[in-house]
Write a structure and sequence with these properties.
heterodimer; A: 327 residues; alpha/beta; Rossmann fold; Alpha-Beta Plaits; 2 domains; 4-stranded antiparallel β-sheet; elongated; B: 335 residues; mainly alpha; two-stranded antiparallel sheet; 10 helices; 4 strands
Chain lengths: 327, 335
């Protein structure tokens, strides 16, 4: 599959009187043609900086970027017509109507005015197109932003938090729209914090943390690579769960007791659990792996899982846990 | 070309543009109406009446003077003699001291008074151009429209240059059209409420050149507003600079220069450069100096700001501000 978007070793450092901050620290990403590619990362991890840099709004300090095989920002003017993008929150001149806003963009891009009507219909703003943008809700502005990105019938669509502000119906419509666009052959790069959505609609994901890529690949592969070593353990009825948990904890297990079962979080070798318990004539009725979802993988990889009693600060990441008990 | 067309539409569609052009038109209309209402046509009857009034006043003054001389002579040798000049040296006024024109109502003489109307026109339109120019790019920056546009047209300098070209072209069209209406309107006012005498081809040429200088002033003002708002990425930047220049630099500098007894303080004040540009020169005088003239007496030292000097300063200012706007757009990140 041809790469529509390639980023290698991208670096960006912000300098101010308060010091320097590395927003991107050798970031890599590849998006193949026709993919719906999820781009994930916690706040301040460098997602928006990456997208802005790719689109020529920010000058990088190093690295290489290419769109459709052409180096950017040098060749950006020649490929910009093939890229539709919304970056961060939708921003429009409030006194113009949606119709005016899009028709001015269409004029600037040398597009047919009919496209304006088509995209307004597509994003559900047809009946409100002649109202001023300042009267729009955040969700409606978001729809307008998506419409502006779709206006030039791009081959690559870059959407930064497109579901931001949308109602549940709007989120579902957006998901359907993404799928339809992907089926029509468009490549979509989707940055979002709604990980369930990403898991549902994306073929591939790239996860960024502290300006570096921490995972990339198909959703299934990323989940498999970072599969949880946790197992769910259910015992015969009447057994003292707290007592059993104490035995396992004494052997180094990370145990979380639930109502009728417990979870061993670091069960690198689940056989160890059955052996320890069998030695004490306690028998397991169920031992099953806890399936990882994208959210837990994301939290693990980015080190942003909430810790009880702590207020995590933006840019603060914890080192992910290594290895497992019983191995 | 598509970008130029789109930006022209954007400029014309903006409510701010319409509002400020309308406000400018209102001010100009008020000026024209004021001139129309405060002037009158002067016919032979009015001239004769003014001459008669001047003559009557002259004769009355002569009678008063003669009476005063007689009173003075009668008072000689008494204590009241000190109330009068020595030797009753009282001179009667001459007829030339009673110019009949002073007894006529105000009348709009196109040749002598239209130049000041051109300056008024240039000042109003320069203000409109400055504000509209600042808002045209400033509102785009602050609303995020500029970023959207750059996602479509990544050549930053070309985008800003096109916007500036649209602003200057629009300002030129507006100024030329309004200038023609302004000239025709005041010619009409002069016809109805004054005089259009002595309007030779040379006089018309002089007015045309002055209007061309007015156009240049309006264009530079628009470009400065545009450039400053682009550097600050907000309309308020240009408006803040304008207020700062007026309050701090002009009033403040004028006060400081006055206190310091600086020679030719006008040299440091923008309005005098604008006057020099519009009226081809401004002669500053230093009343603290004394240059003995051939006819005797003290003549103050002078310094002339020519229209070439003023034009050079405008070009320099234009190049600096627009150049800085282009440079910052090219170099700075858009976040």
């Amino acid at each position: 599959m041809d790469a529509v978007l390639e980023i290698a070793g991208l670096r960006k450092t912000y300098r101010s009187r308060k010091g320097t901050r590395r927003a991107l620290d050798g970031f890599d990403m590849t998006v193949g043609a026709g993919q719906v590619h999820g781009f994930l990362g916690p706040n301040g991890s460098g997602k928006t900086t990456t997208l802005r840099t790719l689109l020529g709004l920010i000058r990088p300090n190093g690295g290489r970027m290419a769109l459709f095989g052409q180096e950017v920002p040098r060749h950006l003017p020649s490929v910009a017509g093939r890229v539709g993008a919304i970056v961060e929150s939708p921003q429009f001149f409030g006194n113009f109507t949606a119709q005016d806003t899009l028709s001015l963009l269409a004029d600037a891009g040398g597009l047919r005015r009919e496209r304006v009507t088509a995209v307004l219909e597509l994003v559900g703003l047809r009946d409100r197109a002649k109202e001023r943008v300042r009267t729009y809700s955040l969700g409606m502005k978001q729809r307008l932003a998506v419409a502006s990105a779709l206006l030039k019938e791009p081959q690559l669509l870059i959407l930064d938090e497109p579901a931001n502000g949308l109602d549940p119906g709007g989120i579902r419509e957006m998901r359907t729209l993404m799928r339809n666009l992907a089926e029509s052959g468009m490549t979509v790069l989707l940055s979002s914090h709604i990980l369930g959505e990403i898991q549902l609609i994306c073929d591939q994901v790239t996860i960024i943390s502290a300006g570096r890529r921490v995972a990339a690949g198909s959703v299934a592969d990323v989940l498999a690579e970072h599969a949880s070593s946790a197992v769910k353990v259910r015992l015969e009825p009447g057994v003292d769960l707290i007592g059993v948990a104490a035995i396992l904890k004494a052997n180094g297990a990370d145990v979380t007791v639930q109502a009728d079962h417990f979870v061993v979080g670091n069960a690198g070798n689940p056989a160890q659990i059955t052996r320890i318990l069998a030695e004490r004539e306690i028998y397991v009725s169920e031992l099953s792996p806890v399936a990882a979802d994208l959210e837990s993988v994301f939290l693990e990889l980015t080190g942003t899982a909430p810790v009880e009693g702590q207020n995590r600060q933006v840019d603060q990441v914890a080192a992910p846990a290594q290895g497992g008990w019983g191995q | 070309m598509s970008l130029y067309k789109a930006e022209t539409r954007r400029l014309v569609k903006r409510r701010f543009t319409k509002l400020f052009v309308f406000c400018g038109l209102l001010v100009l209309a008020a000026v024209a109406a004021g001139v129309f209402l405060s002037n009158q046509k002067v016919g032979p009857e009015t001239v004769a009446k003014a001459k008669a009034e001047a003559q009557a006043n002259y004769q009355q003054q002569v009678l008063d003077t003669n009476r005063l001389i007689q009173e003075c002579q009668a008072a000689q040798g008494t204590a009241r003699a000190s109330d009068y000049p020595p030797k009753c040296d009282i001179t009667a006024p001459s007829p030339s001291d009673f110019n009949p024109e002073w007894y006529m109502p105000a009348s709009f003489d196109f040749r002598s008074r239209f130049p000041s109307m051109v300056t008024t026109f240039a000042a109003v339109l320069a203000l409109v151009a400055y504000i509209v120019g600042a808002s045209f790019v400033g509102a785009e920056w602050s609303s995020g429209g500029m970023m959207n546009l750059l996602l479509w047209r990544p050549r930053r300098v070309q985008v800003l240059g096109t916007k500036l070209a649209v602003l200057l072209a629009g300002t030129t069209v507006l100024t030329v059209v309004l200038g023609a209406i302004w000239t025709a309107g005041f010619y009409g006012i002069a016809t109805a409420r004054g005089s259009t005498a002595k309007m030779t081809s040379g006089a018309w040429q002089s007015i045309a050149l002055m209007e061309a200088r007015a156009l240049a002033l309006v264009l530079v003002a628009g470009a400065l507003g545009f450039g400053l708002a682009s550097i600050g990425r907000h309309t308020a930047m240009a408006l803040g600079v304008a207020i700062g220049v007026i309050v701090v630099l002009q009033f403040g500098v004028a006060a400081v220069l006055g206190l310091a007894n600086v020679k030719f303080p006008e040299l440091y004040l923008a309005p005098f450069w604008i006057i020099a540009w519009m009226y081809k020169q401004y002669v500053a005088e230093d009343y603290h100096s004394c240059e003995v003239s051939l006819t005797g007496g003290c003549q103050p030292a002078t310094l002339t700001i020519t229209w070439q000097m003023a034009g050079g300063a405008m070009v320099l200012l234009f190049a600096l501000v627009v150049g800085a706007a282009m440079w910052t757009l090219r170099k700075r990140d858009i976040t």
